[in-house]
Amino acid sequence: MADMTNMDNEQVNPLLLEFLDTDSFDEKYKLLVAAPTLDFDNLLIDNMASSIDAVIPDGDIETRLQDLKNVIRTRAKYELTRRAK
Question: Which domain does 45 fall in, by range?
Answer without folding.
Answer: 24-84
